[in-house]
């Protein structure tokens, strides 16, 4: 008999370990790779405080910060040329937003890691329930797909910009027989790029700045995508437990409801922390995206039949995807938190009217709180689908103004 119990215990322990191992494979899998390239760890314990500002992160900051004055100088030199001015403005917005994201993340590095550990503990606890494991798997698979698609789109835009210049130089040399220097991003240098050494130095500077922009941007954006998806999973788990809770005695009823309400409260606290950390970034993202899409739409209309249209099209898709991550994920978190009210209504609450009126009052209070939801906002902008449509419409309407100035 004891031998059978030991076998059952070992099997149960192995199943729990397998589920925990599956959770570590799903949770922040792609994001951990990107942050390691940036020189940061998300899940592993770091005892050395010197790892807070690693060399790779400093390299990204310096590469973008040193390239930014060159782009600003190019825009000031061509302030009368709307085409070149909007091109430089596009590059400036990307650089400033990337610097804002990496600097803010490094500033709150400990806070972000603590938030990730809180998510991991709750997911590890709820992953032991079969329904919870299925919900977590679905949300993380969706997150990994969206994050990978967004990463490929953003990296493709950067690669197309870096490769377009050498290709255009080869095409120009084939047509005219002269090699004209062409660089990926608008910038003004203190030297001339006519000889091969100066051009190589300028080109490497452009590629370095592109890498310094792409890596931190992808890291921070996909991190928000993953945390919001897992928060939706926790809200769905609380809703499933509410809809299917069983009570054989009044004591068991109170314990089950206390556990469910505690889980929902923890989810709301995680959502509040997530919103608090990302609120400045969401605000900066929405402001920059409105101007960015306006400039990119103008560039698309100006280079409609030129090879550069492919780059601007890829860049526009990347920016729309960037805004969509915050808007759609924020809308999903708020919707999932509000559906807890519907779960209470669909639960087995009729017998509670006869057993305990205080529990019914608790259900009413929980329904009133869940109607408020868990909104994700950027101070003046609520991250939802309506805001996404508003940003795109505003950007398109601004194109008419730029076309009149050209």
Automatic annotation (TrEMBL):
GO biological process: signal transduction
Keywords, ordered alphabetically: Cell membrane, Membrane, Olfaction, Receptor, Sensory transduction, Transducer, Transmembrane, Transmembrane helix
Highest taxon in the source lineage: Eukaryota
Membrane topology classification: Multi-pass membrane protein
GO cellular component, one term: plasma membrane
Subcellular location: Cell membrane
Membrane-traversing stretches: 58-79, 91-109, 149-173, 209-238, 281-302, 308-329
InterPro entries, per database record: 7tm6_olfct_rcpt
GO MF, one example: odorant binding
PANTHER family according to UniProt: ODORANT RECEPTOR, ODORANT RECEPTOR 47A-RELATED
Family the UniProt entry places it in: Belongs to the insect chemoreceptor superfamily. Heteromeric odorant receptor channel (TC 1.A.69) family.
Protein name: Odorant receptor
Gene name linked to the record: Or98b
């Amino acid at each position: 008999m004891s031998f059978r119990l030991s076998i059952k215990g070992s099997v149960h322990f192995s199943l729990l370990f397998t589920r925990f191992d599956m959770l570590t494979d799903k949770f922040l899998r792609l994001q951990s790779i990107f942050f390691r390239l940036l020189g940061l760890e998300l899940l592993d314990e770091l005892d050395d405080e010197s790892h807070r500002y690693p060399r790779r992160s400093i390299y990204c900051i310096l590469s973008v910060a040193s390239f930014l004055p060159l782009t600003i100088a190019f825009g000031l030199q061509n302030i009368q040329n709307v085409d070149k001015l909007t091109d430089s403005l596009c590059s400036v917005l990307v650089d400033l937003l990337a610097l804002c994201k990496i600097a803010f993340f490094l500033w709150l590095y400990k806070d972000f890691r603590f938030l990730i550990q809180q998510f991991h503990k709750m997911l590890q606890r709820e992953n032991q329930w079969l329904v919870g494991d299925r919900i977590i798997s679905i949300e993380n698979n969706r997150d990994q797909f969206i994050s990978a698609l967004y990463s490929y789109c953003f990296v493709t835009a950067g690669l197309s910009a870096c490769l377009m210049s050498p290709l255009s130089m080869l095409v120009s040399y084939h047509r005219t027989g002269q090699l004209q220097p062409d660089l990926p991003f608008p910038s003004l240098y203190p030297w001339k790029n006519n000889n091969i050494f100066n051009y190589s130095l300028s080109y490497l500077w452009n590629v370095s700045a592109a890498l310094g922009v792409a890596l931190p941007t992808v890291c921070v954006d996909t991190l928000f995508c993953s945390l919001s998806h897992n928060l939706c999973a926790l809200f769905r788990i609380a809703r499933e437990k509410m809809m299917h809770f069983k009570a054989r005695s009044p004591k068991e009823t109170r314990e089950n409801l206390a556990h469910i309400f505690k889980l929902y409260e923890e989810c709301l606290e995680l959502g509040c922390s997530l919103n608090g950390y990302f609120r400045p970034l969401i605000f900066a993202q929405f402001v920059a995206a409105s101007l960015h899409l306006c400039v990119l739409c103008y560039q698309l209309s100006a280079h409609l039949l030129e090879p550069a249209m492919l780059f601007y099209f890829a860049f526009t898709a990347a920016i729309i995807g960037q805004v969509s991550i915050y808007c759609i994920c924020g809308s999903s978190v708020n919707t999932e938190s509000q559906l807890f009210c519907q779960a209470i209504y669909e639960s087995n609450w009729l017998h509670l009217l006869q057993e305990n009126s205080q529990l019914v009052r608790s259900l009413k209070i929980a329904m009133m709180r869940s109607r408020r939801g868990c909104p994700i906002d950027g101070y003046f902008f609520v991250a939802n689908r309506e805001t996404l449509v508003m940003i795109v419409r505003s950007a398109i309407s601004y194109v008419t103004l730029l076309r009149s100035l050209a």
